[in-house]
Amino acid sequence: MSTLAINGGQKTREKSFTGWPLWDDGEKNSLINVLESGKWGCLHGDQVTNFEKEFASMHDLSVGVAVASCDAGLRIAYKAIGIKPGDEAIVPAYTFIASAVPAIDCGAKIKFADVLPGTYNIDPASLEEQITEKTKLIIAVHFAGLPARMEEINRIAEKHGIAVIEDAAQAWGSKRYGKYVGNFSPFAPFSFQSSKNITSGEGGIILVRNPEDEDKIRSMANNGRRKEAQWYEHFGQAGNYRLTEFQGAILRNQLKRYPQQLDTREKGAAFLRENLSLIEGITPLERPGDVQASSNHIFIFKYDKSHFGGISKDKFLSALQAEGIPALTGYVLPLYKQPAMADQVTGGMPDMPVSEKACKEEAVWLRHSLLLDSEEDLADIGIAIKKIQDNIKELN
Ligand SMILES: Cc1ncc(COP(=O)(O)O)c(C=O)c1O
Asked: What is the spatial distance between Cα 295 and Cα 196, in angstroms, rounded to a whole number?
């Protein structure tokens, strides 16, 4: 008789964890109000404008420019910094492709830095090794919502005269060294795509640290228009990245709920860190002491197969999923090994051991929404992992 669910045994957990997105009558009523107002675009209504102010204020800033996606926000930010052909931009090797592709669009080249084994955020030492006289930009991704080591990154950037952009796609309301993300660089794009902790299906925002940059960024999101000029006057070769009022209305409702959810996720993540650390071979990512808030967009633990009879991460994940735990493998390749990056690694394939190991052997991702569940629900994750460990022979 088999015990593990993957072999036909009983599942650890039959019940689903909290799904995503969440909404209530607030979203429903606001959508109807926008519909009936006839003001569907952000140039006509005040939903997006109000959301921009509310979101910026939540990060102790005054200016946010809503855009169609974080990808769009990053493209605008690279251009606003002035990245041009011949320049180099450094990105972490363990990130989503959108952090890097705008460099190619600007005619620049991408250089990759490894990440820290404790947090999977960009490693300042690896970053500094990649700097050449062509380096013009560092992309500091606040991976999984945990702010990167911005004090060291900004010190390095200043020393070499390089600009920094925070890729805050996953880091709504995250805080380190007493400051919210968005306060460590001139521009910080965030994502509101479907999987994100605040979502309107698609969408994004660029937080702008210096209010004097607002007009430039607004123009870059709005076909190169200027505030006081005619509708058909264009001062920059820019696209239309505007949001709809429907998205603005949803985002305002999502934002109202967010502080409470952030708090619940923080508690859930703290519980899981402690609970899963009790299992040999399972190491949750670290929570540095100088971090005051994390969005906990992804809860990640490191899997060590030597405590699981040598079975691969993929096989472990299949067994865990069969137990009713929706764990994910995350990024399957370091960014430099993605087929799309082939023309960026012409000087030889980098070898970044932490990113390699995270993808291939180690990183297991859990979505933010399950951190909204009770400790009793979350305890099932450890119970399922322990069950697999105790019955590992069934997988060999
Ligand atoms: C680190 C990072 N940067 C950028 C993006 C792009 O966001 P969007 O899907 O809104 O374009 C994502 C999306 O998952 C991301 O995780």
From this structure: 10
